[in-house]
Design a protein that fits this description.
single chain, 8-stranded parallel barrel, two-stranded antiparallel sheet, 11 helices, about 40% helix, about 15% strand
Length: about 290
Amino acid sequence: MRVLTRREFLASLSAIGVASACRTEPAAGRAGMASASGAPAPRLDAVGIQLYTVRREMQRDLPGTLARIAEIGYREVEFAGYFGRAPAQIRSELSTHGLTAPSTHLAYELTASGWSRALDDAAAAGHQYVTVPWLPAEARRTLDGWRAVADRFNQAGEQASARGLRFAYHNHDFELARIDGIVPIDLLLERTDPRHVGFQMDVYWLVKGGGDPLEYLRRHPARFSMLHIKDSAGPPDHAMVDVGDGVIDFGAILRLDRAQRGAVKHVFVEHDQPTDAMAFARKSFHHLNTLEL
């Protein structure tokens, strides 16, 4: 069985959504276990995992994989496609294993066609956030293209809010590449309506693109409601490594958020190509739960 690349996987979300719309049936700072005073350090309330990390396992055995994720200690997961299940089935499986799925990734193309049904499905599955994780190349070539994206996000976000959902955008590194002196992610942050559009900061991709997660949290303390936790081996290549094996100080990022507004509500670990997905899941969970916050 051939496993889709990330780009193919994200592109497939559009096809999945269209089909749904057409159906008639429903390193420094790696803290230890305790603070300097000897008291137990505060912990994250819940650690989540983006299920793209374990996509091979989910394709083979969805219930068994969710059971193993729950056994590690995860209480939250994030979807990017339902692996052939209906939203109601997904909600039932999550309940069986004591999990929730605050967010799901949805293709950008759905915001133009099939958005209403996508929102219905998200609500049926029990999600709180509908998150767009990728933009087609033609949408991001010019500043006018980015402005059009922001306007579409505002419209999609307002529609999501009307259904009791929250809209979010997940960055990669291309949002940091300047166009006529302007950084596209800055344009999105400035042009989108905070009442209806939030952001899911992928810390790895932000760093790879030359951004500073701490700077973005300081400048926009209320805009980032979710984080994707991936680690980098550092410049120049920024090879993706297991959480805790790289140079990104996740503790500092989480402590800054708590000191400011506590806007980050959900944290999902992820690895695009893990050597051993379940070993990565276990190691990442342990690392985040030993951070002093």
